[in-house]
Amino acid sequence: MSNLERLIQKILDDAKIEADKIKEEADKKRKEIIYEQEIKGNKEKDIYLEKAREEVQSLENLILSEAQMNVRDGLLKARQDMLDKAFDLAKDKLANLGDKEYIGFIKKKLEEFDLKGNETLVVAKERLELVKSLGLKLEISETQTVTSGFILLTENVNYNFSFDSLIEFQREDLEAEIAKVLFVANEEE
Q1: How many CB atoms are located within 10 Å of the residue 148 CB?
Q2: Please, where are the H alpha helices in the chain?
Q3: CA-based nearest residue to 149, from 110, 95, 100
Q4: Is the entire prediction scored with pTM above 0.70?
Q5: Torsion of CA 56, 57, 62, 67, to 10 degrees
Q6: What are the pLDDT digits (tens) for 120-164?
């Protein structure tokens, strides 16, 4: 082999070695880049997963809170409905008092006043004749009526003893007591 051929061969061999080194360096660099990108991708994935977990937890908390609020509101509405029903039943019971109890109520309340004889008593239409038969020393209105109880009209003040008004006047104070009776017993069970 001639010197030229050996020189060419040496250049080719050296070029091949250099090419193999470059290829090996490129493979090493490629693997490093892939490894770094995998680490970076895994970190980003972890960040996104953590954000997703936080969002899911936040959404769960929101849904749970809303459900608890709906349950509480439903419970409060049911309790209010029960209280309303209790007051309605009380009004009905008072509106349907027997004649003896009704007369007793009127007499007892009228005893609290210093009657002059110029007052007017307004009663339920269906109780008008009953009240007239008592022979009270005051005028009994035949034109004005109430649904239940009575109203005492004086020169200066009208005293409303209608059962609806009396119950509504006392409702706030009575609600707490009725609620204790209705709901404390249920909560202890």
Answers
A1: 22
A2: 3-95, 99-110, 128-132, 163-179, 185-188
A3: 95
A4: no
A5: 100
A6: 899 988 888 888 888 888 888 888 988 888 999 988 888 999 988
